[in-house]
Amino acid sequence: MMRALRWILGRQELLLFVCIFFLSCSQQQKQPVAFVDPFIDSHKSRWFYFNSASRPFGMVNLSPDTRTEGSWNSGYLYDSLQIRCFSHIHAWQMSGIPVMPTTGPFEGHLGMEHTKSQFSHESEIAQPGYHKVVLDKYGIKAELSSTTRVGMHRYTFPATDSAYIAFHTGAMLGHGGVDSSGVRKVSEQEIEGFALMTGTFRRPKSTYVYFVATFDRPFQEFGGWQDSTLLPHTEPISGKNNGAYVRFHTGQEPVQMKVGISYTSIENARKNLEGELPHWDFDRVVNESRKEWNTMLSRIRVEGGSEPQRTKFYTDLWRSLLGRRIVSDLNGEYCDMTGPQPLIKRVRLDDNGKPLYPQYQFDAWWGSHWTLNVLWSMVYPEVMEGFCNSMVNMYNDGGLIPRGPSGGNYTYVMIGDPAVSFFATAYHKGIRNYEVEKAYEGLRKNAFPGGIRDRAGYDHSEIPISGGMREYVERGYVPERLEGEGIHKDGASMTLEYAYQDWCLAQLAKALGKPEDYALFTKRSQNYRHLWNPESGFIHPREKDGTWIVDFAPIGKGFNTLGFCESNAAIYTHFVPHDLPGLIALAGGNEKYVQMVESSFLKSEKHKFVTDHGKHAESWIDYENQPSCHMAHLFNYADAPWLSQKWVRKVKEVTFGDTSPYGGYNGDEDQGQMGALGVLMALGLFQMDGGASANSKYDITSPLFDRIEIILHPEYYEGEKFIITTQNNSKENLYIQSAQLNGKVWNACYFTHDTFAKGGTLALVLGAQPNKNWGRQEASDQQKTVSK
To answer: What dihedral do alpha carbons 728, 731, 13, 15 form, nearest 10°?
Structure first.
């Protein structure tokens, strides 16, 4: 009996071993795209946050909308289980072309609230490039996919002669209303039209989106409505508060629809549709989208770590390539709205007449020097180059390098000129296929009165003064209580950001052979010192008369404290990424500075290092917002790298580790910025100065994975790949015990971009206790011996 029992147990152990073996094999074979989960933190979306049926930077971002109004808590919300429409544009201050399939008596003219349908997550699938959901009210299976500029729909209706698809072109959607819209029937299988999106506080000029919709079969009826009243079937639809519909007889076969969009013309919308999607093979579109995403995500391959860690890693990487949008057509045309009238422009073409890059639009670069700038320049340099070209185009069009364009408009979102760090990083990493001198000209203009720095957030006045540049040039700091329009008129934050941006401009000036500018902007980069108060021990805002503001406290209540943009002194005091040795000296040296920063982490740990959006003044550390994104890495610069290893891992785990619909990004992912930060933390790499200096440093912390391969783009970098390996990696073993770089002992907590660009291997040994001797050596003496 005992022998039989041992045999049975042995068989069970063998079966368990086989299961584990095949599970391990399946995990190793799983493609990066298969780890992406669009539902992560989707309970509290912004309009542009949730994406499913979208390509990288797609003009079309097709997905269900459970709430259709507002910039915040809109679009797809996980716990809102009624779909009001499927819309094609989820972008920074842009929306458009909502459609809704229904059955039964037509009621679309009564509005989306009347025709909304319950759905269940149990029958729902969302993946990169594909979304499936069942509309329970109508028994319709809806499937969505897309190319870059064309949305493709496959609707499986029940058998009926009253299957409708409504186009709510005149409805409020996302950020605002619609000034007017029009739809007309082109043939028995095609309609075309437009919607003129009302201007917003941020995007002040109304903006057209044009569309052409074709169907894989003739429709039986075309009609429309205005002001909730159905119109005669023969009339084109034009005006306000309107929309259109088509009706089908349906049986076993689904109805397929393709919707091409454009911001320039109906003609270009049709060209986009015909050029990108000439066929009706829905599954092919899904597979091609999945393949495109997998190709982009496979530029970083990871092994080891847990399943949730891999899921979050590739979802982070996916998001870094998702939120910012292409706005140019397949032929390279785009709409310039910087002047009094819209003008159609075109990007540069190659010798064959093909666009060299797309024109992009995006939310602010504010904070991107610690996120997207670093990641894109490492892994997606061609993307960074496209954005540089887009900004130079906008300078040529409207006279300013932008910090957040939308619909061809300048939005003047946030503060300063964060584009300068973007360009400095690109240039110093060899990303230079744009008008470099023209870019420098625009960035230099922004650094003086009359440039974009002179506009605080959303200041659209004719003569801006709200950015305080005159005071900055004359006094060396921006005082509080500035006059002028706009918001975010926060002098201390402006001073600190301008100083860093001056330093970035100095780096560009030096590289371009402009010694006078280099000296000027290097000197200005020290302006942060004018706000250091040795008595309070913090960056301390000043009044116009030069006195310190009274009732100062490092943290406060609400959105921000006086002087600090969406933040406080406890966080912004550390915003000196270009001169941390100088800041640390002001703070009393390494030991005191380490105590200061670690105290902030200890106070914030119970709050998971975040605070609610809108309460940024209340936290000592706030990884929910951009000004705090570097704080765990500060210890590397104060001779305590083991503490950066500790706190980066902690923040990655508790702040950005969640893979449920209720966490992971803390409600404000900002078009890939927090996704990019999550990727960098998982890689164990960071750049304090944003990569903006010549041969900039990559700070080293402990990665999450056993092996990481970063594929280097052959048109920009000499090497094939940069590999990071770890031994003894686990949740507990987070401290670096020793390292080798290209086979040589490495005792510095950083390496240079030149080393990265040539390719190589960084091998780390991890342990449960900090090795306080590792990482404290300068790399300069070792660097010559480790080149491959």
So the answer is: -100
Domain that holds residue 217: 37-296
In-domain check, residue 230: yes
Average pLDDT over residues 417-427: 98
Looking at residue 252, what is its pLDDT? 84
Do residues 201 and 218 make contact, with C-beta atoms less than 8 angstroms apart?
no
Determine the longest span between alpha carbons in the chain, in angstroms: 94
Find, among 720, 758, 716, the residue nearest to 429 by Cα: 716
Q: Is residue 100 in a domain?
A: yes
The number of residues in the chain equals: 788
pLDDT tens for each residue of 572-629 = 999 999 999 999 999 999 999 999 999 999 999 999 999 888 899 999 999 999 999 9
What pTM, to 2 d.p., does this model score? 0.95
The 10 Å Cβ neighbour count of residue 67 is 17
Give CA separation, 223 vs 28, 179, 229, in Å: 53, 21, 11
- Identity of the amino acid at 273: L
How many domains in the chain? 2
Query: What's the pLDDT score for residue 233?
Result: 79
CATH of the domain at 43: 2.70.98.10
- Residue 255 CA to residue 228 CA, distance in Å, equals 26
Give the Cβ contact number of residue 308 at 10 Å.
Answer: 15
- 753: domain CATH number is 3.30.2080.10
Q: Residues of the chain with pLDDT > 90: what percent?
A: 93
CA angle 421, 375, 130 (to 5 degrees): 125
Q: What is the pLDDT of residues 152-172, one digit of tens each?
A: 999 999 999 999 999 999 999
Query: Which structure tokens are listed for 70?
Result: 């507002």
- Residue 551 CB burial class (10 angstroms; 0-12, 13-18, ≥19): exposed
Q: Nearest CA to 607 among 734, 616, 552?
A: 616
3-state SS of 516-580?
Answer: HHHHHHHHHCCHHHHHEECCCCEECCECCCCCECCCCCCCCCCCCCCCCCCCCHHHHCCCCCCCH
Tell me the per-residue pLDDT of 341-384, one tens digit each, with 9 for 90 and over.
999 999 999 999 999 999 999 999 999 999 999 999 999 999 99
Does residue 160 form part of some domain?
Answer: yes
The answer to whether the beta carbons of residues 262 and 329 sit under 8 Å apart is: yes
Q: What's the token pair of residue 539?
A: 């960056």
Residue 89 lies in a domain: yes
**pLDDT attached to residue 209:** 98
Nearest to residue 182, comparing CAs of 139, 226, 138, 219? 226
Whether the Cβ atoms of residue 652 and residue 316 lie closer than 8 Å to each other: no
